[in-house]
Amino acid sequence: MLSRSKATKDEYVLILEIWEKSVRHTHDFLAEEDIQFYKNVIPEYLENVDLVLWKDEQRIIGFSGTSEEELVMLFLDPIFIGKQYGSEILMELIASESIKRIDVNTQNEHAKRFYLNHGFEIESEDAVDGFGKPYPITHLVK
Questions:
Q1: By CB atoms within 10 Å of each CB, which of 2, 6, 18, 62 scores lowest?
Q2: Are the C-beta atoms of residues 88 and 2 closer than 8 Å to each other?
């Protein structure tokens, strides 16, 4: 059974490990130097979201970060991708946190399709990410 717990600063190392494994599995379009760049700035953002670890029994599945009605981050350990955990987490967050907005890397076709298949629609797109890097962002709304 899936459960969640509020993440603590002591768990940031674990969260960054999950993030990196997930990104390397799903974001093959990122340059190595950009992966390192994001890995260094992500801890600053963890402080500004409602950060949650998701578990199935004692196994850590992944983590999410929300802010108001936006899903800011959702990353799963790659061994759990494709096993419906992402859908279960997303549906729980929609119900409990009233999630209505998500930004996704346009080049991450799998994630973009995932959110579109869960009722989100494209609102707009930007040619670069929030850091001005050449990774287009798709803004989704429900």
A1: 6
A2: yes
Q: Tell me the one-letter amino acid at 87.
A: S
**Following CA atoms 119, 120, 122, 126 in sequence, which dihedral angle do they give, to the nearest 10 degrees?**
-160
What is the total count of domains within the chain? 1
Q: How far is CA 140 from CA 7, 40, 77, in A?
A: 26, 26, 23
Pick from 35, 10, 42, 33: nearest CA to 21 = 35
Q: Please give the residue range of the domain that contains residue 49.
A: 2-141
Q: Can you spell out the DSSP letters for 46-102?
A: HTTSEEEEEEETTEEEEEEEEETTEEEEEEE-GGGTTTTHHHHHHHHHHHHH---EE
8 Å CB contact between 89 and 75: no
| Residues pairing with 74 in the sheet | 64
Residue type, 105: N
